Every structure is written in C-alpha cells, then in structure tokens.
Amino acid sequence: MSWSIDHLPAVLSLIGRHVYLAGLPLLLGLLIAVPLGWLARRYRVLYPLLIAGTGLLYTIPSLALFILMPIFIGTRILDPVNVVVAMTIYTVALLVRTVADGLGAVPDSVNQAATAMGFGRVRRLFMVELPLAVPVISAGLRVAAVSNVSIVSVAAIIGVPQLGSLFTDGFRRNFMEPILVGVIACVLLALVFDLAIIAGTRLITPWQRTRRAA
Amino acid sequence: MIRFDSVSKEYPDGTVAVGGLEMTAPTGKITVLVGPSGCGKTTSLRMINRMIEPTSGRIWIDDRDTTTMDAAELRRGIGYVIQQAGLFPHRTVAANIATVPMLLGWDRKKARARALELLERVGLPTSFADRYPSQLSGGQQQRVGVARALAADPPVMLMDEPFSAVDPVVRDQLQDEFLRLQGDLGKTIVFVTHDIDEAIKLGDQVAVLRVGGKLAQIAEPARLLGHPVDDFVADFVGRDRGYRGLGFQRAPKLPLAAETTARLGDSAEQVRAAAGTEPWTLVVDEGRRPLGWVNTEQVAGTVSSEVLHRGGTVASTNGTLRNLLDAALSSPARRGVVVDEDGTFAGTVLAHQVLDAIESERAAAAAAQPAGSAAR
Ligand SMILES: Nc1ncnc2c1ncn2[C@@H]1O[C@H](COP(=O)(O)OP(=O)(O)OP(=O)(O)O)[C@@H](O)[C@H]1O
Ligand SMILES: [Mg+2]
To answer: Does Transmembrane count among this protein's keywords (chain A) (predicted)?
Structure first.
C-alpha cells in the first residue's frame, strides 16, 4: 500500500499518458474509418478489399508495429507519435467494417426518401446516414476503446510511458504492487471509456430511447 | 403537366422495364399508373424526378426538359411519397415535415410553423410535432409522409403505393382525406398502385401498363370500366366492372317514398302504433339524420341505440347510382335510405326503382350514340 501512496502523482501522470495514447487514436481512427466505410458501401468492389485489408492490419503484432513505425514515418524511436499512429491503425482496422455495416443498416426507404427530397450525396451522408448509423458505430467504438486501452500498455517495452510502465517496472523488480495497481487502473480506464461512449451516444440519439418495445 | 416523350428504360442486365412510354399527366389532376407487379410503374415514376435516368426519350414538366435541370433542385420541387413512408427515424415529426423547407433555406420558425400547419391539414394533432416516427402508427406515419411531401408546396407530387401498407379501413380513410386535400390543393399528381379499385377511386385518369412498361390504355375511370380496349385491360379491370361503373353515374332524381320515423327513447307502443303492419321503422336523431332501422315487432320497452340495425348504407340525393343501389340492397327493410346534402333524411327508394333508372339511362346513352362507335 505504501508504494501506491508514495507514487500516486506518478501513477496519475501515467494514467494521463494512457488516456492520451489510447483516446486520441480512437478519435483519429473514427475520422479515417468514416470515409473508408462509406467508400466500402458505395462501391461494391471495394467492400471486400477494404474490409479484408483493414482487418488484416489488426493481425500485425503490436510490438512489431511500434518498433517498425519510425521506419515508415521517419520519427524517433521513443516518439509517442509512433504509438498514436499505430493505435490509430488498429482503431481503423476495427471501425471500417462497423461504419460500413452501420451505413448499410439504414433502411432503403429512408435513403430513397432523402434522395427524392433533394439531398445531395454528402448532405445525405452527414444528415441522414451517419446519424442513423451512430448506434452501430458506437458499439464498434466501445470494442475499439477497450482494445486500445489494453494494447497501448505494450508500448512500455519500447519505452513510451503509460500504465504499461508499471508492469515492466514491477516485473523488473519482482514487486507485485505496481503490477496490481496497473491492472486495476487499466480496467477502470476501460470502464470509463466505455461509459463515456455510452453516455455520448445516448446524448446524440434521443430518438433511440423512444423506440417502442415492438 | 408532365409529358413522357417515348421514354424507355433498360436496366444493365437487359430487363426492359419501360418501353417507349408516351403519356401526359395533366396539370392539377391525379394520373394513376396501375398494372401487374413488375410492369414498370415504379421505374416510370422515378424517372420523373430522375432517381432513375431513362435510357432514351425525354420527360417534360410543363415546357422544361427534366434532363436539363439540376437533379437535386428538380427534386425539391417534386413531392415524393412512398409505401414505407421513409420517415427519418432520428428526426421529430415536425423536423421530418420541415425537411425540404430547411433544405431550401427557410428560417427555423417559418419551417416549424409550416410543419404544424401541415400536421393539421393531414388530420393529425399538433401535439405529435415533437414525437419521433417510431411513436406513430403506420397510418399516422403515412400521413406525416404526405405532409412532408407537401411542405414546400411543390406543384408536382409523385406517390408510389402510399396507402398499400396500411389496413383496409385506414386505407379507405387515407384515400378519402387525400381526395379532399387534392380538392383544395390541385396538385399535378402521378400515383402508382397495383390496386385497380384504388386507381378507379382516386384517378382523374388511369393508365394501365402491361409488363415491359407498355401503355395498354389511358382513360378516365368510367371509360376504362365501360370500354376496356382489349382482353388484358378487361381482365385487369376485373369482375363487377359493370356494377362498379355505376359508381361514375350520377343518380337521376327518383321519386322518394316517405317513412314513418321514430326517435331514440320512444316507447315500443308508440312505435308499433305509428308503424301499423310495417315490420321496420327508421330511427332518426334530433336533426332528422338517419341512425338505423328498428324491428317494429321485436322492440321492447323503449327504442335504444343497442337495438338499432345499422347495416344499411346511406345514399345521398346527389350520389351515384351505385350508392343508391347499394343503399337499397343493404337495407333490412329493402328500402334504401336517401339523405339530402346536409345529411337529413329525404326518403327511401326500392332496388327495382334504381334498376329501372339504370335501364333508362342506358337506353338514353345508346340512343345518343350512333351504332358502331361503341368500341372506343
Ligand atoms: N435495378 C434494377 N436492375 C434490374 N432490373 C430492375 C431493376 N429495378 C427494377 N427492375 C426490373 O424492372 C421491371 C420493372 O420494375 P418496377 O419496380 O418498375 O415494377 P413495378 O411496376 O413498380 O412493380 P411492383 O408493383 O411490384 O412494385 C421489373 O421486371 C424489375 O425486376
Ligand atoms: Mg413498384
């Protein structure tokens, strides 16, 4: 216990780093996945390519990706940007399919009505299709959030500090307490991300709450 | 006016959905496209607002070739109603209705006021404005769909089986309201249905298409019923067309018989004394509007609303021969109830009187038309 109390400020700062390294890629990934998912819906031939292609990205081992990233984007090895970019790639890998499926779940009659009323393609995407895809996309985002919180910890091995650093630290010194604190903090963090996404989704989809139990 | 100028549509897989369609939908009238499934009704309709581009031919709205117009702009001037309503589930009823006004850049207040006005127009309470579509019944959603199509007051409306997903009673109601609305608004409407009865009821003119999108006949409903051009149209128009044709003939003035009437609350003795040997007595309300028939012999105590026989239909003095005949046939007393325009009881007719009237109308029509010209 005394270790935790002594190192509280350090742990808090590690949590902050963790939020940044797992959260920012979530937003960036979403921004990239939306146009890709839209393309996958719009052009039938692209769908299998984009879905399989992005799906494959997720299978690259994270450690390898963290290590190789500087070679691709010319950053320094310890630069946290490496982690942000790598995590963004994982987020995109998880979300492209979700976005495509979410857009695909918009009823045909709704899309037709929108077109018939004179919505252009872009306007229709932002005013009709995306809002209706929010519940599906949000479900995917929750998976990505939990996955990010967990994967980011690996970055401790290449020396980018966040909660994962507590694991390497504890392991080196054969000392359980930091490891335990790290695990608990990770779980709580994942929970907070999840709740935040749920709350945000509820806020922007008031129409979902009125659904009659059909 | 909407004019199809030898319009064809062949889909990439080689299906000819519409083949050389020549047709005009006159301004301010309802033109119904009817025909068997897959005959190209929806395709024809969607070519008007260019959701589908014709393979060849042109479509004119008044004197503008639609292909020369910007598609989105064209569509904002054309109301569109479809079977599943297609309301936006994430927007309130008012926001749904205000969609096109907002696209056209109206200010928020004005668009909302318009939405509320239209809600009333289509027979919904304004308290529905802030509900979401999932909180409405199918028939109510369809009404909102119509209101949404009318929002920016487009001169042209396209309707693709708008009433076919609701139950028959609601459908009938929606059709009546639609006709009333059209009476006020006078839009140029192209209406698609596969239901010939709906076509006959709603259309100022009805276009029957055959598979392959070929026009078989276009005519006013009465003409279609009376003079189908070939077996296909005759089959499609269906049985009972002679009887249904009566629905387009105004009833002539017939001599109406008077009735002894009773009121709710009258005693059985009063009723029997007034009726004499007549087994049925007509019950009317304070305004002399007919309520139903009561069996004179069986009534006990006082005449109450429970003992009323309400199965009979009521014809209006300015109704059709069909209304009149039906009133006679559906009446338990065999005497059809006829009311004045204000709904007050005017008298009764017997079925044979109506049949005689039909006979003489037909004889007069045959005499007026030289022999041999009956085919067209
Ligand atoms: N996108 C498409 N590709 C190929 N063929 C099509 C396409 N859309 C429609 N068709 C075909 O074109 C023909 C006409 O279709 P359309 O939808 O216009 O018929 P409809 O008269 O509206 O039928 P229904 O009463 O069943 O709605 C049908 O044979 C249909 O299979
Ligand atoms: Mg159709």
So the answer is: yes
Test B134 with A207 for CB contact under 8 angstroms: yes
Closest C-alpha to ligand 1, atom 17? B42
Kindly state whether residues B63 and B22 are assigned to the same domain.
Answer: yes
* Sign for the pseudo-dihedral over CA of B270, B272, B274, B280: positive
Is B23 domain-assigned? Answer: yes
Answer yes or no: do B10 and B81 share one domain: yes
Give the global pTM: 0.81
Q: What is the mean pLDDT of residues B93-110?
A: 96
More confident residue, A75 or A35: A35
Domain count, chain B: 2
- Report residue A170 as tokens: 């504890």
Residues B109, B19 share a domain: yes
Q: Which domain holds residue B327?
A: 261-358
Contacts of A110 in chain B (CB under 8 A): 86-89
Q: Quote the pLDDT of residue A67.
A: 87
Residue A213 binned pLDDT confidence (cut-offs 50, 70, 90): very low
Query: Chain B contacts of A105, Cβ < 8 Å?
Result: none
**Same domain membership, residue B278 and residue B213:** no
Tell me how close the Cα of A193 comes to any Cα of chain B, in angstroms. Answer: 25
- CA of B20 relative to ligand 2 center, distance in Å: 18
Assess A4–B contact: CB distance below 8 Å, yes or no.
no
Domains of chain A with CATH codes? 2-213 (1.10.3720.10)
* Segment B148-183, tens digit of pLDDT: 999 999 999 999 999 988 888 888 889 999 999 999
ipTM confidence score: 0.86
